[in-house]
Amino acid sequence: MKAETIQTLHPDPGKTNKKITVLKYELIKAELLLILSKNALTHTELMEELYQRVKDTFEGGVQWYGETVKLDLEARNLIERTNSKPQKYRLVD
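^ thats the sequence. predicted structure below, dont judge the formating
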């Protein structure tokens, strides 16, 4: 049986993001939101923390899925980029 997929969104309305399995989406989404619930992180810090948390159990490219879901969460206004230098990601208040 084929795994259920979700069409992820992209913060740029002119772009289409990827379709991924719901299971992987939910896992990465939960981890990203948990990571960002503690403090704002740069893109590199966020992806490294995600990788360290799921690398031993996740099947697939952690960075690729992390980026895809991060863009989706931005498009859904659950996370946002700061205007600071370097730019950081944080949960939307």
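The two ends are 39 Å apart (CA to CA).
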